Amino acid sequence: MSVVHHLPPGWLLDHLSFINKVNYQLCQHQEPFCSKNKPTSSVYLDSLQPDPVSPFGTPAPCFAPDATTVLDKEDGGSCEVITQKYVFRSELFNVTKPYITPAVHKKDQQSKKDENLVTGEKQEVSVSVGKKRKRCVAFNRGELDAMEYHTKIRELILDGSSQLIQEGLRSGFLFPLVEKHDGSSGRITLPLDACNLSELCEMAKHLPSLNDMELQTLQLMGDDVFVTELDLSSRIIENNSSFSKMITLMGQRYLLPPKSSFLLSDISCMQPLLNCSKTFDVIVIDPPWENKSVKRSNRYNSLSPQQIKRMPVPKLAAPDCLVVTWVTNRQKHLCFVKEELYPSWSVEVIAEWYWVKITNSGEFVFPLDSLHKKPYECLVLGRVKEKTALALRNEAVRTPPVPDQRLIVSVPCALHSHKPPLAEVLKDYIKPGGQCLELFARNLQPGWMSWGNEVLKFQHMDYFIALESGQ
């Protein structure tokens, strides 16, 4: 379970546990005396035998079968079934210290005059430039709005997080910080993003399109399945087995969890998702919001609010669908979602939740009152509005009302934009057996449909390690 503690303020989550409870176990049928022709396409299901060196230049995990079973065949021969289990790299969740320490934040604050948010008095900032002091411009309207919003929710974040963190410390899930004396810096080397999935989606636009009458879904069956780039970019790919599958895409290997499905495409190629004859009872959206940081870093292509507004959510949403949208700490984006985006999709705002990011010892990753970055992000939850007759007909399958102002407290992943799982905290507010969809996803989840132009990003094999037999 990813939910470590559930208290009135919200949930303390273990993101790593959620990933590793997935059965990331590869199963391969091997016939020693029967040779098979390997597919020649650039996208195919891989065997269990990894290359000695990964595409990123780091040592690939050594092959250590978790279990081997010999099955008798009808023709009198035998076939070995080898399984290998993988887990996510635990060091990617080893956040021992805040990104900005309170001491650094306090020193930075000494150069600023206090602002009276009650009276709306502007705050001026002065910084040192050589031997002179340069006076900066007062905060703009957006910054003042953000400060006012922070003031409203500050006690909620502080008090609720404190309760969940204290419970985590008592149970041993969180632990007091112990300084290292071995001289190591504790820095994590992250794999490079060598396979640019978004570029692949752009390239796929120039491939010939499939006939509309052809099958829109491709199920991965067996150990070696021929899958072309055209299949990948124009069809929903499904792994309906109880084991994981490994595919190789442009020389990079990706691990697909069992019972998962995805469409790798950008916003201009969503037709296969619309043609799959499915509507969804929960839709989680993590839009690539425009901001200066993303523009400077060039991490991914952002979308304007109007482009996000054109997402076909109404066509994908089932009656009474729960829509959850991640929003950055910009009041402009929050107001857009609540006042323009949701109304345009006929979605009624019902709650705001907050993801609070902490270290393994329970400290905020940023000081709570930091003007640079906040240690929390907002989620806006809404329900698709129903017609009266339909609402009465569905009264028997009504779910509990979604509570407002709840916290999701967790240690964040070191990978940028790797959001915590929402499946277990949302399950009580979705009808049993409900269909789930994540838009702008960067990883896959069992039982969920995932879409995005980087939908396999965090399924890359370099983020996983192979367990030795018996672990």
Automatic annotation (TrEMBL):
Cellular component, GO annotation: RNA N6-methyladenosine methyltransferase complex
Tree of life domain: Eukaryota
Stored InterPro entries: DNA_methylase_N6_adenine_CS, MT-A70-like, SAM-dependent_MTases_sf
Molecular-function annotations in GO: nucleic acid binding; site-specific DNA-methyltransferase (adenine-specific) activity
Protein name (record): Methyltransferase 4, N6-adenosine
Gene Ontology biological process: methylation; negative regulation of gene expression, epigenetic
Organism of provenance: Rattus norvegicus (Rat)
Family: Belongs to the MT-A70-like family.
PROSITE patterns membership: MT_A70, N6_MTASE
